């Protein structure tokens, strides 16, 4: 293996061994999730990421899995395997457009930049009024025989165009609930697009990230760096200290840091956050509004206050925190 940057890239036997071991680890994590001994975990693949949540997390009474970004091909493959799912962000934008189309169109047009178009900037939420091929409104007007109706192929092409418009965007987030998460597990294990075919990750299974130990997992630490300096304030200068953390900062880690820094900094600190943009859509609530209620969770090895926070219904939608500041033990934040 010496002198070869990616020895597994061209070794199919080695790739099969790696994938076999990875499947065992993946299944181990899912079983811990179903037993509510793991609150959540991530599957970070080359083309998309998956967030599995245990029942009781984010206000959902059943296990959930969110996938983003997705493509029409991936969604069709999931449908063919019998996996039931929804597109909550797309459905939300369609509902909002139907309720107030004029204000949404004005908002979209005002947010255009140079060289942009309304189609580029707007929500990909075309109307579905005629998706079923119904033209009863023509009959009501008495002109059904005088107007040329689009054929079945044209209707199907329009549907496909609407679905392709959301590919690779936050609106393409796919939500799987309940027992369908187990079907998704088997689908992902056998999914060919799960493994990259080129680049530094070629031939390697996806990365699994979890807040608890699991079979085949290794304990990793974040990279930390401290910086000190002096800042000008009214009446002179004061010492300023900062702590920089690099790596996959998981949700429970961020909350644990706030619990540490609050009393340690006497109720005053500021945190600048750099989120992984494709994962921002995971802040979408996985439960329907009528079912979104906080649930009790077992300890899972996490701080009770952290579990209480994770059980709350998300409110950020497809945005994420950028700034978190505490003054006199009171929080303010910006998304």
Write a concise keyword list for the protein shown above.
alpha+beta; 5-stranded antiparallel sheet; 335 residues; 10 strands
Q: Which consecutive residue ranges, at least 5 long each, have pLDDT under 50? A: 106-133
Q: In percent, how helical is the residue content? A: 25-40%
Radius of gyration: 24 Å
Mean pLDDT: 80
- Secondary structure tally, helices: 10
Note the run of SSEs as H and E: HEEEHHHHHHEHEEEHEHEE
Strand order of the largest sheet: 4-3-2-1-5
Could you tell me the strand content as a percent range? 15-25%
Taken from the alpha-carbon principal axes, the silhouette is globular
Distance between the termini: 46 Å
The secondary-structure class comes to alpha+beta
- Total count of strands: 10
Quaternary state of this entry equals single chain
Largest sheet: 5 strands, antiparallel
Description:
The protein is of the alpha+beta class. The chain has helices at residues 12-34, 72-80, 88-99, 101-110, 118-121, 136-141, 152-164, 180-189, 251-264, 304-310, and strands at residues 40-44, 49-53, 64-68, 174-177, 207-209, 223-233, 236-246, 268-272, 323-327, 330-334. The strands form three sheets. Strands 4-3-2-1-5 form a five-stranded antiparallel beta sheet, covered by helices on one side.
